[in-house]
Amino acid sequence: MKLENYINGSFQEAAGGEYAAVLNPANGETLCEVRLSGREDVDRAVEAAKKAQKQWALVPAPKRADYLYEIGRLMKERKEHLSQVLTKEMGKVIEEARGEVQEGIDMAYYMAGEGRRLFGETVPSELQDKFAMSVRAPIGVVGLITPWNFPVAIATWKSFPAIVAGNTFIWKPATETPMMAYEMAKIFEEAGLPAGVANIVFGSGSDVGTAMIEHPDVRVISFTGSTETGRHVAELGGRHLKKVSLEMGGKNAVIVMDDADLSLAVEGILWSAFGTAGQRCTACSRVIVHKDVKPELEQRLLEAMKDLTIGDGLDESVKVGPVINKKALEKIDGYVKIGREEGARLLAGGNILDGAELADGCYYQPTLFTDVKWDSRIAQEEIFGPVISLIEVGSLDEAIEVNNSVTYGLSSSIFTQDVNRVFRAQRDLDTGIVYVNAGTTGAEIHLPFGGTKGTGNGHRDSGVAALDVFTEWKSIYVDYSGKLQRAQIDTD
Ligand code: UN1
Asked: Which protein residue's CA is at the shortest distance from atom 6 of ligand 1?
């Protein structure tokens, strides 16, 4: 099967371009082929989106929301099918795939509700017989660039607020995971979304992504991916005066204090470090542990890691699936070598799995380093794989300092039973998301998602905050005095 672009309400062959194979990371099998489109296809999609947007913006928001209710319903009806496709193309275990699809369904219903809110402000005017208010206005055509690790949820965080607010979009999914986008295109079509509101162009970042950013009619770029690519998106977007929303890397930590419930901490660490094989932006990759509980935590983690069955995510008993591809395997393995060279002590894992039945897949052993120095490379750089580094500290202040020492600022967590420590931590941890007595993953869709420092550029996905990315504030003054009233002048 060959996946083609979805433009102006139909699947269309691209103007040219090669196809790339989409591989199942669990076994190396080719699932389908995807078109690598070019600038001409982006132009075509933008033209359709621009035309559609004029009408779409005039559809009352509660009516736009009705399409989202229908999209949510179709996703729910198809949840199992979508989850299976997701596991096949991305590799995450089926339970997590179901969770990700659920995240998309939740986002559909949540943003549909926004169709009846989209709150602005009404404020008193400083002048008599004058009315003042602000409304959220759509921006126009928006460009969405999404990653392979959450092929559907992240796309819903961006596309659903975009359309409920009256924009139309061009979506470039990651070339590793185009099948979810294809499934979503079918859902958009069945939901009766007017042609041109949702457009999908498959292809590489350097071709399709660049063409989207450079296109004068694409007013917003919402990007999730690596910090390296995000920097490039921001630079190029800046040159073209685009509004650019970036969601990038993380180097998230769980802090375990000496009064923590250690069983709970172990569960939280395992779930957030090895779930999705460590390939979440929110994944825990550092454990900052108080010295008094370090030996016990190490022992408990080692014991619990024995239960992490590795394999094809379609097998319900498997806990850790493959990583996305061979290149990712090599990158992870490279970091494990760096860790060893830096003098960290390897307690578990540390190898690519090449046992007979797993050899064709991309599997890395869940890996645990201890005695890691806070400023070493494995404690500072994003690995994006199932590797955790234990760093010892002597106090809460030191733990917070170590947490904040990285260039990223997405998610952090603290395990403690002391309410004073909880409130100090939630104030002083410099990440966009903070968890107390839970791991670093599992953000819910109705709060803002994003991070500080090298993780983002001040915008947020999901929550009401996402509407800030996809709307422009318009302030409106209605003077019904019948005379010219001058603000700031006629004040008496
Ligand atoms: C991501 O890894 O980019 O909070 C998204 C979580 C998920 C989303 C992660 N709800 O872990």
From this structure: 442
